[in-house]
Amino acid sequence: MPSRGTPRGRGGRSTAAAVGALVLAAVLALGACGGSGDGAGRGPVRLTWYVYNESSGSFAKAAADCSAASNGRYTIGVNMLPNDSDGQRQQLVRRLAAEDSSMDILALDVTWTAEFAEAGWIVPFPAAEARRLTDGMLPAAVRTGTWENQLHAVPLNTNVQLLWYRKDLVPRPPRTWDEMLADARRLAEQGRPHYVEVQGAQYEGYTVLFNSLVASAGGRILNEDGTQVVLGTPAQRAVEAIRALAHSPAADPSWSNQREDDNRLAFETGSAAFQLNYPFIYPSARQNNPRLAEQIGWAQWPTLVPGQPSHSTIGGYNLAIGAYSPHRAEAAAAIECLTGRDNQIRDAIDGGLPPTIEDLYTDQEFIDGGYPFASAIYTALQNASVRPRTPAYQSVSLQIAHTLSPPSSASLGRLGQLRGAIADALESKGLVP
């Protein structure tokens, strides 16, 4: 595993080549834009990075390290956004709508690329620069930052959920949704911890749950180009799975109010046997409940079709350049550093965030250094589903979370209502504020 002291490029790029490429990119950008700094002799350009408050402090360290590594070209200040994606998007949209020139580097949820690109709030990377910035990255992650065949955002981290379980309670991990509920029911009858912790509040996480269930049943919410509703038999199976959990002993009494961090906390207290969540829960458990952490096992997300792989929804964050930033060349250079190998390793080990650099998933030093579930994450990413790709995604997501909430009320009747609501959302002429 490489040293984390000085951020550098991805595997396969020499330091000299990386520096040369940065210089060339800066010269081209300055020639095209007439300069993007604060002026000669005035010190480094001050960039602002809008990103959520990652709890391990990895992002803040990356900003400091990249500022130092720029040799006085720029400094990166971090503007912390709310931890929930809905709150993050709201703040970004308000500032961008006001043409805020401080919006230099934006951490975007993977579902926002189409919306922000269509609105003209972020700028695409030139083709040659896009190839360099994404060299060696997972193709699935790169696709999340691409719209209309142009890279608009560079993957910072990817993400996908696994099934986390208690090895001291479950002899082998369940492979299907029904097996998971049966195991939970057995544990409940024995008076042992048995809850399945999963996102059920009325927000984006509940939409992700529904999307993962629909995909794992062999279906999708919208067609490939995001223009028509496809919900069919797989969506019915997804609703039935939600109802089965809601009306079983496996359901945490507070499920309808739970988000990812609520699931993490409940699991750490020892009341649950299972958790469907992202890998950030692992370093957290190691810090907060080391004894429990020793009993944590991991497996693929439970499928709805026996014998077929599950399709957990891909997540993560990408870094884009704000359209109103006067420092585009420096922002691009900073993004290359922030998404570099050393920073991705630290984000993964300290924060649990899956890297986008593909060869890390077979890097034994990285795996032994604190990412033992790398192979499981890689497998899940190969089978991952995507959320509907449409500029109207926010409206679609809101309709799903609203119509099927709370989980105990999800029904085939509401699924019929959802079809019409999504169709209306696709006809929306504006963005959800």
Kindly list the characteristics that best describe this protein.
alpha/beta, 2 domains, 5-stranded mixed β-sheet, 4-stranded mixed β-sheet, 18 helices, 11 strands, disordered N terminus, disordered C terminus
Outline the secondary-structure elements.
Layout: H1 15-33, E1 45-52, H2 58-69, E2 74-81, H3 85-97, E3 105-109, H4 113-119, H5 127-133, H6 139-144, E4 146-147, E5 150-151, E6 154-159, E7 162-166, H7 177-189, E8 195-197, H8 204-216, H9 233-246, H10 260-268, E9 272-277, H11 281-288, H12 290-293, E10 296-299, E11 315-321, H13 328-338, H14 341-351, H15 364-368, H16 374-382, H17 393-403, H18 412-426
Parallel strand pairs: 1-2, 1-3, 8-9
Antiparallel strand pairs: 3-11, 4-5, 6-11, 7-9, 7-10
Pfam family, one: SBP_bac_1
Organism: Parafrankia soli
Protein name: ABC transporter substrate-binding protein
Find the structural class using helix and strand composition.
alpha/beta
Q: Major sheet: order of its strands?
A: 2-1-3-11-6
Shape: globular
Give the class-level CATH name of the largest domain. Alpha Beta
Q: How many strand elements?
A: 11
Number of helices: 18
Into how many domains do the coordinates divide?
2
Summed over residues and divided by their number, the pLDDT gives a mean of 89
Question: What is the CATH homologous superfamily assignment of the largest domain?
Answer: Periplasmic binding protein-like II
Give the fraction of residues assigned to helices: 40-55%
Strand content: 5-15%
Low-confidence stretches: 1-40, 429-433
Question: In angstroms, what separates the terminal alpha carbons?
Answer: 43 Å
